[in-house]
Amino acid sequence: MCHAYSITTNVEAIRQMVQTIFRFDVAANIGNLTPQTGVYPDMLAPIIRNQPGFRELIKLRWGLPTSSQALYKQAQDRADRIAKKQGRDLTAEEFAELVRMEPDRLPVLPR
C-alpha cells in the first residue's frame, strides 16, 4: 500500500473539525499528531473507526491488516520462544492472550 494521505495540521485542529463538523467522538488517548508529509504503512496515524452506533477518531498503525494465519503463526513463534525460555509449554489461555496481543488487533478504547 502506498501512502494515501498526509497530515498537514495539528491534533487540536483535527479534533475540532471532527467534533464540530462531523460530530464524531475523539479517543481520549489520541495524543499528539505531528504533521507528516506522507503517512506510510506501519506508521501511527489518525483514522476514523466505525463502532456500533458511533464513529471515532483514533490513532492506529496505518496499513493493511495482516492475515489471521500470519498473526497466528507470529503468536505461535513467540509462544515457542517463551516455552523454550521457561522450559514448559504455554497453557491454552496464555497462547490465546499472545494471539490477542498481536500488533494488528484493533484495541478496544474507552469512550
Largest sheet: 3 strands, mixed
User: Unreliable segments (pLDDT under 50, ≥5 consecutive)?
Assistant: none
Strand content: 15-25%
* Mean model confidence by pLDDT: 78
Radius of gyration: 18 Å
Across the major sheet, the strand order is 1-3-2
Structural class: alpha+beta
Looking at the structure, what is the overall shape?
elongated
Helix content: 25-40%
Give the N-to-C terminal Cα separation: 30 Å
The overall strand count is: 3
Succession of helices and strands: HEEEHH
Total helices: the number is: 3
Describe the SSE topology.
Layout: H1 11-20, E1 25-26, E2 44-51, E3 54-61, H2 68-86, H3 92-100
Parallel strand pairs: 1-3
Antiparallel strand pairs: 2-3
Question: Can you put this structure into words, describing what you see?
Answer:
It is elongated and about 55 Å long. With 111 residues, it is an alpha+beta fold. The model has no long low-confidence stretch (mean pLDDT 78). It has helices spanning 11-20, 68-86, 92-100; strands at 25-26, 44-51, 54-61.
Feature tags:
3-stranded mixed β-sheet, 3 helices, elongated, alpha+beta, 111 residues, single chain
Describe the structure concisely.
This protein has 111 residues and is α+β, with helices and mostly antiparallel strands. It has three helices and three strands. Helices cover 34% and strands 16% of the residues.
